[in-house]
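Table 4 source record.
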Amino acid sequence: MHQTAAVAADLFLDSSPNVSISADFARNLHGLRQQIDDRLAELLPPPHDAHDLIGAALHEGVLAPGKRIRPLLLLLVGRSLGQKSAALLDLACAIEMVHAASLFLDDMPCMDNARLRRGRLAVHARYGEDIAMLGAVALLAQACGIAASLDGMPGELRARLVAVLCDAVGVRGLVRGQYRDLREGSASRPAEDIASTNEQKTCSLFSAAFEMAALSAGAGEQARAALRIAATELGHAFQLRDDIEDCAKTPATFTKDRNKDTGKSTLVALLGLNVVEQRLARHLAQAETQLGYALPSDQGVVAVLREIFNSSPIAGQKKPCVAHLSSAIATDFITTVRLKVEQNQLVTDGWGCSLGAIGLQGA
């Protein structure tokens, strides 16, 4: 069996000082994720009636079990920089809405043609392509509206936050990256072109999350510059992990369609798994270095990233591992698994370790 993203995680972990998540920090993360989900549910417009498919699709697509990585990172970075305002949570929800909108569109038949997302039918497969398109537009509009009306933040700052969000989505960000992936992905491309597409397609939202966190906290230019580099490195790492998982031979977590990259010019196809695993490890190491410059007294963000990558579902095919957690966290983990089984939401047995207990092991 070929090596997987576990190798990259091991390289990353072995090359750096030990940073881990304590039981208290795990509880805090669980609480943050719950706050994000609760606030998303409040901000999303409820369906007007049983016939309101737009409202139903928004709730189903946005609130489906997922990692919430981008809003979590925005919250952690912002708080580490000293931003304690409740408006930071709304800003985190805005970035998650944009991410969800991109998934609505990415899964459509004219794009990636995927039918499974976060362990459920993709929005277009359940509600129709028209609903998926309209729902994505609604989410993008609401995200910008949230950023434009944040309580307690001056108008000039709110305008800058909206601009960052729009720039991440537009022709220099997600839109351009997806276009290049669709139109150039089936052709032979050098590694530099593939990486450039990945930067626009995947790094853009990480960059927006870090930049908005920094702007809201009034961070200086040096910290913002380091965060921009960290976000780019992190986005590349996530894209490489996604590419590795797409071609995994073992049925890890089929929470979304697999083998969608067959015939595409990805870095895995061009360079091979071993080289891509080494690149992934370098991206993670660079991200950690830059986070150290921007957030010198904080290890929370780095700890989260290490757990995310080390507990990848295909990282050694790990099963639930709660021995190193407190009894409270272990109980929470077991309760979560039981609840998902009862709700027919658990579609895989390929759980990771400690982040499974705080709900970060989704698609």
